[in-house]
Amino acid sequence: MIYFKGSTPLVSEYYQSFRRFAIHGDTRATGKDMHGKNWSKLCKDCGVIDGKNITLTDVDIVFSKVKKKTCRTITYDEFKVALGELARKKYKDKTGEEAEAEVFKLIEGKAPVIAGVTRAVASPTVSRLTDPTKFTGSHKERFDETGRGKGKAGRVDIVDTSGYVSGYKHRGTYEKKVNKPTEGRPM
């Protein structure tokens, strides 16, 4: 749903919330349709689920009811229908339009809540263990002088398969010695 203010189109806050939740957790999502997992997250994060009138089971049933039989996702239009059904169930004492308006207020401008994300601890012990300048022995060889890892070259001994014996210093000089012009020597 797009509204116009002057000549500039303004996308409604409901549609923005729909898109934010539709792409949450899926790198390939386009934001045009929403999976059931994201629908449930929207209902939890926005406070549509209250545990009394609306439960997670109700949310899943409404999702299954409004989506097409062969699809796993709902479009924005199906999303509005699903919210209408939940609104009438949540606010039984209000009319259908008033109930929908209340539920839309809950969703307006919201974004997914990211909880349970692990943060790095900034303690002296952790910083000492993760500082490559303090590494010794063979571990020190895994990093260059700037502290960046060398990748596989720092972890694995790369075998020289050129045919020369390890430790041979004059690699590539044989041809020069063999093809050296002979001056003054009889053949």
TrEMBL record:
Amino acid composition bias (Basic and acidic residues), ranges on this chain: 138-152
Highest taxon of source: Eukaryota
The keyword Cytoplasm appears for this protein: yes
BP GO terms, sorted: microtubule bundle formation; microtubule polymerization; positive regulation of protein polymerization
Region annotation (Disordered) ranges: 131-152
Cellular component GO terms, alphabetical: cytoplasm; microtubule
Alphabetical list of Gene3D superfamilies matching this protein: EF-hand
InterPro entries in alphabetical order: EF-hand-dom_pair, TPP/p25
Keyword annotations: Cytoplasm
Keyword Cytoplasm: yes
Single annotated GO MF: tubulin binding
One Pfam family, short name: p25-alpha
Subcellular locations according to the entry: Cytoplasm
Family: Belongs to the TPPP family.
Protein's name according to its UniProt entry: Tubulin polymerization promoting protein
Record organism: Oryzias sinensis
